[in-house]
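Revision sheet: structure tokens.
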Amino acid sequence: MKKSIRRALSQGLATALVLAGLGAAMGGPAGATVPPPPPPAPIHGTAGFSYTGVANPPTGDKPQSKLWWNDGSWWADMWTSGGWKIHKLDRAAKQWVDTGVGVDSRANTSADTLWDGTYLYIAHHVVTISTEDGPKASRPDSPARLYRYSYDNGKYTRSSGFPTTITTNSSESMTIDKDSTGAIWATWTQVSGVTTGGYTSKVMVNNSAAGGTSWGTPQTLSGENATVAPDDISSIVAFGNNKIGVMWSDHITGSVWWATRTDGQAPTSWKVQYAVRGPNQADDHLNIKSLQADTTGRVFAAVKTSFDMNSTAKNSDPQLQLLVFKPATAAFDKYTISTIGECHTRPQIVLDPENNKIHAFQSGPATTVTGCPYSGVSGAIYQKTASLDNPVFPTGRGTPVIQDATPSVNNVTTSKQAVTRESGVVILASDNEERRYWFADFGAEAVKTAAAGTFVPVAPKRLLDTRKDLPVAANSAVSFQAAGLEGIPADVSAVVLNVTVTEPQAAGHIRAYPAGSQQPNTSSVNFVKSQTVPNSVTVSVGSGGKVALLNSSNGSSHLIADVSGYYRAGTPTVAGAFVPVEADRAVDTRAGVPVAPNSALSVPIGGSSGIPANAAAVVFNLTVTQPEAFGHIRSYPWGSPAPDTSNVNFSPNQTVPNSVTVPVGSDGKIALLNSSNGTVHLIVDINGYYIGGSPTAAGAFVPKVPSRFVDTRSTATVAPNTAMSFQVAGTSSIPANASAAVFNLTVTQPEAFGHIRAYPDGGAIPGTSSANFSPNETVANSVIAPMGLNGRISLLNSSSGSTHLVADVNGYFLGG
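Predicted:
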């Protein structure tokens, strides 16, 4: 949204400064002191060459990419005297070198570039910018042209027959991408109308023959709300190996829209949905990227809200957001990049899959400026980074990466391509007041070695829900894809799932195991008829990246599986790496005598069940059965004091399981304390262990003797449909960069049916569950949750009644 008031604010400030300067020159009051000039802003980044004669900032516009990586070098389409030319970055000399290859001579154009590995495509369109208060019709006879270049031996050569014409009308912005058939697609918005009759704007698309050699007739994008405000814009991206997507802003309905089509179908076969919708959710800032190698087909879009135009907005309201499209669910997750108080605008994102990062670059006030003078103020370019799998961005303005002494840098631009360890990251911006390019080169960033067996947390995602289809039949198994979906690589060793049983027709248990493997003689979830019960399960991935769940009962049952992370494939060797083992029953007291009241059972772990003597911690499913009284089980290293925590809560004659992660004592044993006034039988089914030693690798597990982090019984209940958060990282000897926590979550005294959702604080609320409960029930479940903003984890009470929550932390995973 480009309102004139923004410019008026800056112009008013400039006028005030001019008048103040005149007053000083003419002589002020006697004895008046002239304040010293402010100190110069610190320099960040590198100054490029100066430019003159171009109509608009040469690194604009927001959706466009001016950079590409090819043959070991960074290249850019940059304006010099005489026109737009291809430039090459000399990294050693820190300067852009004119290759002498011309592109477009028109000073009133802007460009979007695409390198596909064979050809370089550059689309130049004539720029007409509308503001909310000053709409302008697109100009006819202003052709947008597609240029194509081949590359050989360090030189670009324009292909014969180019440029071709995309459209004959001007536009505020235009972007291009290539589909799997070789066709080039373009999108832009086209404004029509006159001052007396009003203006309208349409979202337009066009596609070429393979290789961009000829173009069809531009079409209005079919679907809801393809008519938008004059200052709205659109952007296009290829994704999922065979799809094209168009995203556009819509101030009229407060929406950001998303249209997709499958390659090879009719050009009008678009499916339209909104990416985000609601008051103040839309502004005309878009930047979209995808990973063609991502089998899940995710699309990442940085968008700006218009909360800053709302007089009642708070500094904590989102200014820039990241929208992540998941084709498997056809839905978007939403994350905050920056808040209003951080005063950011014009976002661009760069995907870094080798380091599992997303880089967000945006304009903001100079580092010498406090607060937010007005939204859209230029000054410096800031960077924030987050995990690709769990994109929770840190608070604050971020790291300044480009700033000149003036300072008035703006309009950062990047590449469509994902960066690699060889390419590093390069960004380009411009100071349109000083008329000079600026850039930042982060060099080749070494990939942090991803050690086998280390853990990668993901925001909880649902992989299986049989309620959408048919229940799992009695004594039958269902298998489902766990690897290669929802940001989980295809080559993982194991996944962590929350498995929920609901609507069972008979009592029984569930066995989780790698698909294609022999069914184990163990259990993961125990249930009775009509019960809803969850349990955390760590299970190896089997044939084709699938996991199987066997319904061992005489009745059908529905099953739900929510993934919270995975372990990297390979042979684990580093301290803290997880080693899955074939499910093995280590203890079953039903074959002997039950555990006496208020007594502890010693369980030898090290040196048995395939677990070495020096294992740091063990992961197992603990099942309580035939208890004579109310109580709970506490697990801890044998020889240590019993902690004031719990792992499994039970009632008389109840059978209840829970996953347990606990450090192994120095003698290779763990203890299971029966904290009740009656005897109880215990069953221990081993799932795997963590390698001993001092963990240092990212994703390595650090076990802790269980300690209580949350107990609302000492404060107040969690209200209905309300979330509470608690601090984990940076407290109780857990480092600030910890990536995820392992904790036992207990729900007690709930007033209504419901479930708890655990997720990173500040992240999107997942459509998953971590613990399910009934009124007045006490239930527990093991949870692995990624850290969110400032190292906190949120727990949402999804029920119509209040409840108490208890969280006992058993360990954490090291961050990268």
